[in-house]
Amino acid sequence: MMRSERLQFDNVKLDGKYSFQYIKDSVFENCDFNTKDAFWHARDVVIKNCTIRGEYLAWYCENVTFENCTIIGTQPLCYCRKLKLNNCRMIDTDLAFEKSDVEATVTTRVISIKNPLSGTITVPEVGEIIMDDANAAGRVIVKGKGKCA
Description:
This protein is mainly beta. The chain has one domain: E3 ubiquitin-protein ligase SopA (Pectate Lyase C-like). The protein is built from no helices and 14 strands. The protein has strands spanning 8-10, 13-17, 24-29, 32-36, 43-48, 51-53, 62-67, 70-72, 83-91, 101-106, 110-114, 118-123, 126-130, 139-142. The protein starts with 7 loop residues before the first strand and ends in a 7-residue tail after the last strand.
């Protein structure tokens, strides 16, 4: 599906690497993906009620929205523009949101969040917030018992 446009997936299970790279104008609902490097450079994509397992999810994407999704794996959602997460779970995720422009509401603990470029990330708990880049101006709001920056 590399470089595809106007994809519509509903209730699809996929095991594979490098899924949906450089896609545009697509919608995924009720899917279960076990993949690596999925949605890299994706643009204008909505992903609803899906479970996505794998590392390096959606790097360099633009105008991608995850709604009611479960995201599992290391270093998700980095270098993104106009990224949105609404009511998503993040399991075993570390170094998330690096250099991303993001508006996110996460319902679970995140291991670590690193240098969000802009926007706001709301989480109930976070293990570590790494802000060692002078250009990282994103806010992390913790509405639970974890750290806040």
